[in-house]
Design brief:
By secondary structure, the chain is an all-alpha fold. It contains 32 helices and 2 strands. The N and C termini lie close together (7 Å).
Length: 611
């Protein structure tokens, strides 16, 4: 089994007070989940977002159905500045990925730009994804009618990739109301309205709605008309809202059952005991933002679709929604935490709030079986179970079970973060050496390199995996000195300890990396032609040709976008070694090599070079 450690997904975590071994479970006993969310919002208000982005979230929506519009916005909308994590790992914290200042995406030919953005659909590299979003959101804001197509392509790509906030900010910064293209204006106004709905800025929603009605703007799927009805209903202008809704039913070709259910529930005078059967299917993705606002004001459950479409703005409402199933709330918290929008305190408090009884803790194996694959609840159960253990050996054992489960189900980063206070209580010793490798890598994930180093002594005296030990040493060394020589030294260590039974694809990857760093390794150079066919595909000839052309010309933005196209929907382990070689050459040139180190770290991790 290959050693997997997601070191490229380090997250900038909030400062958390250290808890002693006997008080870990009581970390949040005096603070509610709502209080922790509000504390985070207050802290982020004073932080400056590198891209100037603004995020609005809702503190509390209780009793909003009986309030007028001004009361709703006064009580419930909290504007905050959210600091985004611009780095994919601790390794590159000190050398932030920066956009090439001398170039603009507007310098690219219009036809070529459209082709580029249409061909980039899914970026699986976190490093490349962050750089791509930075390029798009940093587009120039002083434009004219001749730039209309380009700004449309850029904003459309941001919106389609779920970056509604970045799309909204680019629209506002570019002041696009002057554009003569009515289709583009309608698209931009749809994004503006949906952003305000998703962030629950209802007074701004209704103000914009009035402006758009006055200007006779037409939005798709009767979004504007439905928003008008929603605004009238929460302003207690029910007769007018019902009249407009009856007109909507006559005009709309297909009845929007979701909107009608939500509208009927919103205008109810007494909701006690009334069952709402939820949102089943969407007529349009654009309408989900209106639905989310209507659900939130009525304190109705939110579904997973809301998290997927707009995790930035809708994760906190899902987390705080007591009517939403707990597994969905945890899923929202996990996603929000991984995207660095939610603190470790909030995540921990939600995990601790899941209600398990004493009988379930008495029979943990049966409890896990009874939860029947509900992985979010199982994670919460394991987290609470670890904190209930009194004796260190029991805590070690359950913690290993927790990490093993999380690793097998894609929650390894969550488990390491949640365990930070737990592992701080462990003391390195020969007695605990069998757990040393796991404890050290958890410390490394949480950026506690000094604490990880203290475990090296006892690990070296145990009979643990030597390759994993060298890998941990490498990560600790890289935290102190992140230049390329540290990577070269580590590759030499791997070369000198190659297993004769190592997988051929790892051999190929090492050979590519060795050649890139000009490292001589006869063992790899003399490899037999055991396999003469390869199922991994290569990009097209013309795409490779143009990548090489832009490498020679150091044409940064064209080079970067062409490389993204060649990597579309692929992980590093899925590309051909020759393609990998080309990508290393590309990013060694792009922006003076600013991305090469984090990319090499991704390659080492994704291709399982360490086992």
């Amino acid at each position: 089994m290959f050693f997997r450690f997601l070191f490229i997904s380090f997250i900038v975590l909030s400062n958390v007070s250290k808890a002693s071994e006997v008080t870990i479970i009581e970390l949040h006993k005096n603070k509610s989940l709502d209080q922790l969310v509000l504390e985070q919002e207050n802290e982020t208000q004073i932080q400056n977002n590198e891209n100037g982005l603004v995020k609005e979230v809702t503190e509390d929506t209780k009793d909003n159905s009986n309030k007028n519009l001004s009361e709703v916005n006064q009580d419930d909308s909290v504007e905050v500045n959210q600091l985004e994590n611009e780095n994919s790992s601790e390794i590159i914290d000190s050398e932030k990925v920066t956009l090439v200042s001398s170039e603009s995406i507007f310098d690219i030919d219009e036809v070529l730009l459209k082709s580029y953005l249409t061909s980039i659909n899914q970026i699986n590299s976190q490093t490349l994804s962050k750089e791509f979003l930075k390029i798009l959101s940093s587009a120039k804001t002083e434009i004219n009618d001749n730039d209309a197509n380009k700004i449309y392509f850029i904003i459309k790509k941001l919106y389609e990739t779920g970056e509604i906030q970045k799309a909204y900010n680019l629209i506002k910064e570019s002041n696009l109301d002057f554009l003569s293209n009515k289709e583009y204006l309608s698209y931009f106004k749809t994004i503006e309205l949906n952003y305000l709905l998703s962030t629950f800025k209802l007074s701004d929603v209704c103000e914009l709605k009035t402006q758009l009605l006055d200007d006779s703007v037409v939005l798709p799927n009767f979004l504007l008309e439905k928003t008008d009805i929603f605004c009238l209903s929460i302003e207690n202008k029910l007769a007018e809202a019902k009249l407009l809704n009856s007109l909507l039913l006559e005009k709309e070709p297909t009845n929007d059952k979701n909107f009608q259910k939500l509208f009927d529930y919103t205008i109810l005078e007494n909701k006690e005991g009334v069952f709402f059967d939820g949102i089943n299917s969407l007529q349009s993705g654009d309408l989900i933002f209106l639905y989310s606002a209507m659900l939130r004001i009525n304190e109705l459950p939110l579904t997973e679709e809301f998290i997927e479409i707009d995790p930035l703005n809708l994760a906190i409402p899902v987390i705080l929604s007591e009517t939403t199933p707990m597994n969905i709330r945890i899923k929202a918290a996990n996603k929000s935490f991984n995207d660095n929008f939610t603190s470790e305190d909030i995540l921990s408090a939600l995990y601790q709030s899941v209600d398990f009884n004493s009988e379930q803790f008495t029979e943990p194996k049966q409890t896990v079986q009874n939860l029947n694959g509900n992985n979010e609840l199982i994670m919460a159960f394991y987290f609470q179970l670890v904190n209930r253990q009194i004796f260190p050996e029991d805590r070690f054992r359950v913690l290993m079970e927790f990490w093993e489960f999380s690793k097998n189900n894609g929650y390894e980063s969550i488990a390491y973060s949640l365990s930070k206070n737990i592992i701080d209580t462990f003391t390195p010793s020969l007695e605990n050496s069998k757990y040393g490798l796991q404890i050290a890598q958890a410390h490394i994930y949480n950026k506690n390199y000094n604490k990880a180093s203290k475990w090296l002594i006892v690990i070296e005296q145990s009979e643990g995996n030597r390759s994993q030990l060298e890998y941990i040493k490498f990560l600790i060394a890289l935290s102190a000195n992140s230049d390329l020589n540290t990577i070269v030294t580590f590759l030499n260590t791997i070369n000198n300890n190659l297993d004769s039974n190592i997988d051929v694809k790892i051999i190929e990857t090492l050979d590519v990396l060795n050649r890139f760093f000009e490292i001589q390794n006869p063992q790899i150079s003399n490899f037999d032609y055991e396999f003469i066919q390869d199922e991994r595909s290569m990009p097209s000839y013309f795409l490779i040709r143009d990548v090489k052309k832009n490498i020679n010309e150091i044409n940064n933005l064209n080079l970067f976008l062409l490389s993204l196209i060649s990597m579309d929907r692929k992980n590093w382990h899925e590309i051909h070694p020759e393609h990998l070689k080309l990508m290393l050459e590309t990013f060694n040139v792009y922006d003076q090599g600013s991305l090469i180190k984090p990319i090499i770290l991704e390659v080492l991790n994704d291709l399982n070079v360490i086992r």
